[in-house]
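User
New here, help please:
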Amino acid sequence: MNEVPVELRRVTDGLTEGKLKTLAGVRSFERGLDYVDAVSGIEVGDDWIRASVRGAERYEVKLVFGGGRTGLIGECDCPYGQEGNFCKHLVALGLTAVAQRGGLPRLRETARERTRNLDAWLSDLSADELLALVRDEIAEDRNVRRRLESRAASARGDLAGLRTRIRELLDIGPFARYGYVEYADARAYAEQAGQAVSAIGSLIGSDRAADAMVLAREAIGLLAGAMESVDDSDGRLGEIGADLAEAHRDACRAARPDPEELAHWLITHTLGDAVDLTDIDPLDYEDLLGEQGMSALRRRAVEAWKANRTGWAEKHLMRRLAKAGRDIDTVIAVHAADLAPNGHTHLLIARELETAGRPDEALEWAERGIRDTEDLTVVDTALVDHLCDHYTRAGRIADAVALRRGHFAARRTLLTYRQLRSASQAADDWPAERESALALLRADAVRQGQRGGRPLIDALLDDEDTAAAWHAATEFGAHDDQWLTLADRSRTTRPAEALTVYRRLIEPLTHQTGNDVYERLTSLLLSMRECHRHLNTPADFTAYVISLRTTQRRKRNLMRLMDEHGL
């Protein structure tokens, strides 16, 4: 009598704390420990356990055994669980089940006994008594009433009535405040809206697939309109949209609509606002469209694109269909009809042609992108990189250098300087190129005046020309991070100048608080100590530190850091 049933044995064998920790991760597992006492209403089936867990809200959780790679699958309707994660609520249920392992068979038998008793009681009721019971439930539970109303309309063949029910299910009115459904009410609205999917699905199962198809389309439109007025942070409406899309496909497979009509709806939907809700791909209907429908689909897509060649949705659809049909020329034509002024579209075309094994045409489009971009300050840098890589592979080093030179002249940044240096070094011509590049940066510094020399100093530092960088910083001024880099590189060769930099950078930090500030200040002090060591003036450093400790003594964390470093 107390033997664990064979069906339930895999439940008890597959459930361990180690497996729960592996699935949830350490953090969720530890948080789940705090929710064990919040588990209630445990029910046990042959290969599942479910319960409610009270968190910020009451969540329904379920563990299914024997599935997935680990042999254990968790389902929870909390936001984290709905993203596919094994959440703390599932951990709590699992830990509760582990603790009550010996009582699981009893719980399962109790659930079965309750079901048998309920079935027996219902079977003994007369038709009038059953009707009265259902009426009582309808009066108390609005969701039950709406589900039954939908089934009734479906059973009567009342398309108008069912349409009205679906409109009511998707109406945000009862949940909205000032025309918007806040996050706190979004879940209740989503639960109601989800009943529309069930209502449409019941039509498919009752040989009324054509009606289901029509209502699915209408429901998609209604839900797409409602989403603008709902805080769907948890993504529940997106899931309902995906379910409606699946119901529409199922209805189409059962009803086999006219291919031309289906193609027209697919194009209209794909180019409309509701596409973001369902993510319907017309190519998923290829088996239903057949040759006639696919021909109509392509024809209508071309018509829509010709009417709006710059529309993102129209271009995306055309490229999608063309790629599916391996029609590279159409893909190119769609891109070429709306060229971006910075050469980005030229680059896309070049990549498509390279993938198609047409390198000469790819190169022509890439070079055209550079020519068509009148101002290289705004050119897509990826296009420049792409073309330079091609030149380098083809042994056209001089062309790569020329392009990098032009790009640097237009956009004098550290990145373009490095790219010019790399290309010029490959051509064994960096000294001459460097002189010209630095002349441009110096001219900019002279023109911009005080602190206009940052790009020049960055370039000199990147070249590890510290002496020239010191000179430029002295002449044009530098930012604190550049001065710090100069000082760090010059502690041994120019300790006096480096010491002056460190003392200047420390001063403003003495008026600030926070552990990050204290760590920076301590690091600067250590650098100062090294400078004094090279200058053979340790007594001066000791006096400075004593004075600093006196003025900063209230900052206990700073004092601790200085103690740790012997300062």
Notes: Residues 213 and 248 are 5 Å apart (CA to CA). Residues 183-205 form the longest helix (23 residues). Strands lie at 39-44, 48-54, 58-65, 72-76. The mean pLDDT is 88.
